Amino acid sequence: MNGAHDMGGMHGFGAVIREENEPVFHAEWEGRVVGIRSELQRFGRNIDRFRSMIEQVRADRYLSIPYYERWLDVTLRDCVERGFITAGERRQIETVGSDEDVEALSSRVKNINVPQTVPASTRGYVRAIITSPAFSIGEVVKARNTHSATHTRLPRYVRGRTGVVLADHGGFVFPDTNARGEGEQPKRLYTVRFTARELWGEDTNARDTVLLDLWEPYLEREA
Fold first, then answer.
1. φ/ψ (deg, to 5) at 115
2. Could you tell me if residue 44 is left (phi over 0), alpha (psi between -120 and 50 degrees) or otherwise beta?
3. How would DSSP label each residue in 19-49?
4. What are phi and psi of 173, to 5 degrees?
5. 140-183: per-residue pLDDT in tens?
6. Which H/E stretch holds residue 164?
7. What CATH number is associated with residue 217?
8. Contacts of 126 (CB under 8 A, 6+ apart)
9. Which secondary structure element, helix H or strand E, spans residue 133, and what is its range?
10. Residue-number span of the structural domain to which 184 is assigned
11. Is 48 exposed, middle or buried (0-12, 13-18, 19+ CB in 10 A)?
12. Is 123 within a domain?
């Protein structure tokens, strides 16, 4: 989507600061949030929905909180929507934010029985499709200049840019519809090579390239 959440698709956020000897988690509650997310997958695994929910975090909050607090924000909303906790309990955890609160939530989610109507999570995102490929290996294509108001895996910096198809990977779950609850609607996935100069101008190294895996609806033929 277009917004502050597309930090990898925009300029202006500054250099990535690398922390020497960075631990996996900076606090115990961060690990518990990851555990809760794993438990929630028992009720259906949809990484596209999760990413879309992160993009719904208010922009100023998203930019001011650490990585796993974004996960906690989404996890609490998810638990309220599923009826696992109340809105009041969500506010309690958000306000106090203690390890004990998150640990209690972790224990509750872990002990919830999965309804029989919930199908087992499908591993992987490869899906069979019967449609013929719209593009061939070596073909010059252009990324569509679209501006989705909801989740998409088409980076902003590549829209309207021209590249070459390197590989056809067959059918994969289409993130845009899967995130919106409109079904997997599998589409063909391609690897497309873009030169750095095509993406960022003549000041870049002429030998540098970027490879992106892009779904067929993201692409069109170069006129």
1. -60, 150
2. left
3. PTT--S-SSHHHHHHHHHHHHHGGG---HHH
4. -50, 135
5. 999 999 988 899 999 999 999 999 999 999 999 999 999 999 99
6. strand 162-172
7. 2.30.30.50
8. 170, 171, 172
9. none
10. 140-221
11. buried
12. no
60 and 100 belong to one structural domain: yes
Residue count of the chain, please give it: 223
Digitized pLDDT (tens) for each residue of the chain, 223 residues in all: 677 787 776 777 788 888 999 999 998 889 989 999 988 888 888 899 999 999 999 999 998 998 999 999 999 999 999 888 889 888 888 776 677 888 888 888 888 887 666 555 556 899 999 999 999 999 999 999 998 889 999 999 999 999 999 999 999 999 999 999 999 999 999 999 999 999 999 999 999 999 999 999 999 998 7
Residue 44 in tokens = 């259906």
- Phi/psi of residue 142, each to 5°? -125, 135
